[in-house]
Amino acid sequence: MTELVCIGTSDAFGSGGRRQSAYLLRAPNGGALLDCGQTTGTGLAALGISRDEIDVIVVSHFHADHFGGIPLFLLGAQYQDDRTRPVRIVGPPDVEARVRRAAEALGHGIEEHDWSFPIHFQEMPSGADMELGPVRIRAFATHHSPEANPHGLVVTAGTQRIAYSGDTGWFDNLPRLIAGSDLFLCECTQVHRGYEYHLSLEELAGTRGDFDCGRLVLTHLGEDMRSLTDYGSFEIADDGLVIKL
Ligand SMILES: [Zn+2]
Ligand SMILES: [Zn+2]
Predict the structure, then answer these.
(1) Residues, beta carbon < 5 Å, ion ligand 2
(2) CATH: 3.40.1360.10, 3.40.50.1370, 3.60.15.10, 3.40.50.261. Which one for 3-244?
(3) Mean pLDDT of 178-188
(4) Predicted confidence band at 1 (pLDDT cuts at 50, 70, 90)?
(5) What's the CA angle centered on 234, arms 222 and 224, to 5 degrees?
(6) What's the 205 CA to ligand 1 centre distance in angstroms?
(7) pTM above the 0.70 mark?
(8) Which of the ends of the chain has fewer CB neighbours closer than 10 A, N or C?
(9) Residues near 177 by Cβ (< 8 Å), separated by ≥ 6?
(10) Cα(84) to centroid of ligand 1, in Å?
């Protein structure tokens, strides 16, 4: 069985009372968490999901709503779960330094604890396939705040291929990079074209025919996206939504 559980589907600001980005991919051989926003612990608890299900955390980029939940994920694994299995944290270049700095700034420095489980950091270079235990991933650079080292992901789990945009504005290569996926989880922060580093419903409606994928589900929804009642031909993610693959 392969399924994607949407743990958090809001923009950075929790619009609509939803949680920040986090998606659990349950693959035949384990679990991969795609992004780990600051509200991930709340989401896992609300949905009754054990941290122990997660073998690997894949970070799309270094914004708080995508990786800010990692320090307390690790702390919970240690002190609530008595975890012994390794946690692998994978992300764009500099991932280890970024996570360590964030953890320290938030008061839970990684080197301050005698961990009951190994923590492995691994960088994902753009365009190269990586085997990560339960999944295989390939990262691609996106059009988003450059200092956050933004990437999207193509994740293969069993026979299924899931593409995830991470955060991005429009760039012409996007349809080619996700082509052939069974599911494309695509950010759509705004209704109308505006801030250049996020996608809009307006742009996606105009380019829907360019995307060669199975289901296309919109996520990372901002306030104006949440207030719509008609999304045309698009599916919309929500916290707790389970997508069977
Ligand atoms: Zn974001
Ligand atoms: Zn971002």
Answers:
(1) 63, 167
(2) 3.60.15.10
(3) 98
(4) confident
(5) 20
(6) 21
(7) yes
(8) N
(9) 140, 152, 154, 163
(10) 31
